[in-house]
Structures are given as C-alpha cells and as structure tokens.
Amino acid sequence: MMDISIVIPLFNEEESLPELLAWIERVVNTNQLTYEVILIDDGSTDESWSVIEKLRMANSNIKAIKFQRNYGKSAALNEGFKAAQGVVVITMDADMQDSPDEIPELRKMILEGNFDIVSGWKKKRYDNTFTKNIPSKLFNAAARKMSKIQLNDFNCGLKAYKLKVVKCIEVYGEMHRYVPVLAKWAGFKKIGEKVVEHRARKYGVTKFGWERFVNGFLDLLTIFFVGKFGKRPMHFFGLWGTLSFSFGLLIFSYLTVSKFFFDVTGMTQRPLFFFAILAMIIGTQLFLAGFIGELISRNSAERNNYLIEKKSGL
Ligand code: UDP
Ligand code: MG
What we know:
Blueprint: E1 4-10, H1 16-30, E2 35-41, H2 48-58, E3 62-66, H3 73-83, E4 88-91, H4 103-112, E5 117-121, H5 129-147, E6 159-162, H6 163-168, H7 179-185, E7 191-195, H8 211-229, H9 233-260, H10 271-299
Parallel strand pairs: 1-2, 1-4, 2-3, 5-7
Antiparallel strand pairs: 4-6, 5-6
Helix pairs in contact: 5-8, 9-10
The chain binds uridine-5'-diphosphate and magnesium ion.
C-alpha cells in the first residue's frame, strides 16, 4: 500500500504551487516514501489549474480535482479524503505556511505512536496578531471546552490521520476547523499534537475574512449539538419544552387559586400572568420543535448508519 497521501486544498495559489510541490517531492524522496499528492482546486480564478496540469506532466504522483466553483476548504478536504489511498493521510495548506519538512515526523507519530490523528500546533505564528492570533486563542479555548479535546490549535491546516479516520468523517460547511471533533464523535480517541513550524505567507493573500469568526463559532455549536442530540432531538427540546410549559401551568394555577379562593382581584394586571403565558407558549414551541426534529431524524436515510469497527463470525 502507498505510504502517504498528501491532501492540499487550494484557492488561487498559482505562485506557491510549483515551490510547494518541489519541496514535498524533495522530502518524500529523501525519506523514500511512496506517495500521492491530491490537489483540490477549489474553483480558483487564477492560473492555478494550468499550473497543476503542468506539474502533473512531470510527476504522475500528483493527482488533482477541480471544483466548478468555490465551495470552501471543508468541501475540498472532503473530496480529497474520499480520494486518498495512503496508509497515512496528511493535510496541508497550499500557501507554504505549513512546512513539508514536518511530514516524516507526523507520519512516525501515527505509525509508531499509534495516534488516530496528530494535529499541528503553530506555537509560534506568523500571522496578524489582532485579526488572527488573539481571536484564535479564544476559539481554541471554546473548542477545547465544548469538545473536551486537549488541543492548542484546532484550526491548523497541517494534520496527519490514519486512513480509516478520514474515510469515516464528513467535513462540510466551515467544519475543517473542527476535524478532530468530528473524528472524536466517530469514535477515534487517540488524538495527538505536534508543534510545527509556521511560516509567513509568501505569495497571495489570506482567503478567510472576518466572517470566519461568526461561521466558525456557529459551526462549533452545530457540531456539538448534532453530535449530542442529532439522533434524539426530543431529549433536548422535549425536556426544556415540558419544563417550561409545566412552570407556566404552575404559575397559572397559583393565579387562579388566588383569584377565586382568596379574592385577589385583577389576574391580568399581575406581571406573573404574562410570564405564565410566555412560559407556556415557549414550552409548546420547544416541544413541537423536538417532535418535528424527531420525525425528521426518524425518516432520514442515514438513520441507521453506524460505524462498525469489527465483526466476527459474520
Ligand atoms: N482555501 C480553499 N478554499 C477556500 C479558501 C481557502 O481551498 O475557499 C485554501 C487556501 O488556498 C489555502 C488553505 O485553504 O491552501 C488555507 O487558506 P488561507 O491560507 O487563506 O488561510 P489562513 O492561513 O489565512 O488561515
Ligand atoms: Mg494560510
């Protein structure tokens, strides 16, 4: 079997590609590895694709996929993962901010350390302090707390995986930031980290603007929620809906009793009255959301897709 697959998503990186590929080739040849490089052109509008075709003519280990339009880094990774065949799969950015020199060591950690994933950690970063470094610290703290995975740098483009891991997970939206979380939900627990060299961007510009923070955070919530309640929405919505409704009902009974038996006049003048109504309406809505969610998940085509690790006697 092939030693490594190197999966590289790219969007308008024409200047970097030749240098990057030459560097990768140098590293794999010194280490005598059999390899493939899978380039996913995420709808580039520059000359990236013709650069790729030129590179392919000189080296048949290079394979490439071109999207019709820009779908995003997650989509590109997902397609790359589908195509990968190597025992170890490495992902890296195309802009040469990640160093191919890290490949042999990452591979060694997967094979000898028996890690399912090894994630790079850009301990010393060469990006803008205010737009990148500080926000990313906050993000990583939130992601650590929600996922209980002790990584310092979830979003590092340079990562290594066992082949099986990438075949078991589906990356979409902006979820490339949380691939370790997806892997954990799929049952891969041994997640390691390696400090990697990070470099300043040499050519081109960053492809992620300020929306990265909003989208990234919402996706974290989605991952958390889908992982925990995706197959049983009623356990979340039903619980809170019922609680809220009962609370409202309780207040209502109190108001009714005090009006008819203790003659406290003006039920609708009391603030509690409106609070009770609000609680009951919210409760009903939550309950309905849960019920509808439950119906949808029961009808989904994937409802009985479980990842089976082993079978014997079957
Ligand atoms: N990328 C991509 N599709 C996109 C945006 C980015 O394939 O829609 C690629 C990009 O070409 C690069 C990697 O994802 O190889 C990381 O992007 P970038 O370097 O812009 O992110 P940053 O390092 O600034 O976080
Ligand atoms: Mg970059």
